[in-house]
């Protein structure tokens, strides 16, 4: 298995060659006990929400490079193909030590391992995910695992409610927000709106950004996706009713998660009210300081909203336009 792109990165087409896949351990005994990685709660599971796929042991988190280098190896990709069921037609590259998520070669795109193992993304990649990323002008590598989780869970919730999740509905029930920049690389995450809640998942996946790989853009990986066919949709007057339906069903399905969300809201509101109580006037004769008055903490998420227009990367755009 010696094929490569420009002689730099090895293409993994699912062939083990002379290596035996049986030598790959099947338990992650090298996980860092200090991290306390969350377990999936024992809650109701809707049809369409996949079970987590356990991956083989890999290096301790302490040995992972802190400069963003991928922790993927040839053996991990072989195990991923076997456990997820990735066709040999899907071509995968293990990034070189100096390559980062934004460095996918022309005609390739970056994907994170947890998208497949935690949230059931398969090939061809979910058209809704491709369409959403393209319309927002971001690469898949810029989306956090939370975006994928919200999309997969929303699709399952919509199916249980007898409706189909499309881009318009997903964009109306979520907010896309900019996260912390890593150098010149910006990631984006979503938050749910309309009081829709989810349970039955891990909110933290430690070091997920360190396990990424490149996938060749072709019919095997993205199907017949063509951004030129994407057209703006008209506002649907039945959306509000859909919001209420999804909200009520989510609360019923994940009652524990809803109760915890409400508890945190009340706790946060109580703290803000306590801070906002005016202090008694100072004693006579004490000079009053001048300057701006400090405001009480806002009761909203202070994460930075997208302020800059999102321009479609020419490289990303070309990757998803069929020739």
Summarize the structure.
By secondary structure, the chain is of the alpha+beta class. The protein is 30% helix and 11% strand. It contains 9 helices and 7 strands, in the order E-E-H-E-E-H-H-H-H-E-E-E-H-H-H-H.
Write a concise keyword list for the protein shown above.
single chain, 323 residues, alpha+beta, 5-stranded antiparallel sheet, two-stranded antiparallel sheet, 9 helices, 7 strands, 30% helix, 11% strand, globular, disordered N terminus
Give the arrangement of secondary structure elements.
Elements: E1 4-5, E2 9-12, H1 74-84, E3 92-93, E4 108-112, H2 113-117, H3 127-136, H4 145-160, H5 167-173, E5 174-182, E6 185-192, E7 212-216, H6 219-222, H7 239-253, H8 255-276, H9 314-319
Helix pairs in contact: 7-8
| Beta-strand share of residues | 5-15%
Radius of gyration, taken over Cα atoms and rounded to an integer in Å: 23 Å
Structural class: alpha+beta
Biggest sheet: strand arrangement: 1-2-3-7-4
How far is it from the N-terminal to the C-terminal residue, by CA? 28 Å
- Helical fraction: 25-40%
Number of helices: 9
Task: Report the principal-axis shape.
Answer: globular
- Secondary structure tally: strands: 7
Q: The biggest beta sheet, please?
A: 5 strands, antiparallel
Average of pLDDT: 75
- Ranges where pLDDT stays below 50 over 5 or more residues in a row are 1-8, 14-38, 288-318
């Amino acid at each position: 298995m010696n094929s490569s792109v420009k002689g730099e990165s090895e293409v993994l087409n699912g062939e083990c060659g002379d290596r035996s896949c049986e030598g790959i351990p099947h338990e992650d005994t090298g996980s860092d006990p200090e991290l306390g990685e969350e377990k999936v709660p024992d809650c109701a599971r809707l049809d369409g929400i996949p079970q987590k796929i356990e991956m083989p042991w890999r290096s301790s988190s302490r040995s992972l490079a802190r400069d963003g280098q991928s922790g993927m190896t040839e053996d991990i990709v072989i195990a991923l193909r076997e456990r997820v069921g990735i066709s040999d037609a899907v071509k995968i590259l293990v990034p070189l030590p100096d390559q980062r998520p934004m460095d996918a070669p022309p005609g390739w795109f970056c994907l994170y391992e947890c998208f497949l193992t935690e949230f059931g993304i398969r090939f061809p990649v979910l058209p809704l995910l491709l369409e959403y990323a393209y319309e927002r002008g971001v690469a898949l590598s810029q989306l956090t695992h939370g975006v994928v989780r919200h999309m997969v869970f929303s699709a399952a919730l919509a199916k249980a409610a007898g409706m189909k999740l499309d881009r318009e509905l997903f964009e109306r029930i979520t907010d896309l927000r900019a996260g912390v920049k890593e150098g010149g690389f910006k990631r984006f995450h979503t938050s749910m709106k309309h009081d829709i809640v989810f349970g039955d998942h891990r909110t933290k996946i430690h070091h997920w950004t360190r396990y990424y790989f490149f996938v060749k853009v072709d019919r095997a990986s993205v199907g017949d996706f063509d951004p030129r066919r994407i057209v703006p949709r008209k506002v649907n007057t039945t959306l509000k009713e859909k919001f209420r339906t999804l909200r009520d069903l989510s609360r019923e399905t994940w009652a524990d998660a809803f109760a915890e969300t409400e508890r945190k809201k009340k706790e946060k509101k109580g703290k803000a009210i306590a801070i906002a109580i005016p202090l008694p006037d100072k004693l006579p004769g004490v000079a009053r300081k001048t300057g701006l008055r400090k405001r009480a903490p806002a009761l909203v998420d202070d994460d930075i909203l997208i302020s800059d227009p999102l321009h479609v990367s020419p490289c990303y755009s070309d990757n998803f336009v069929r020739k």
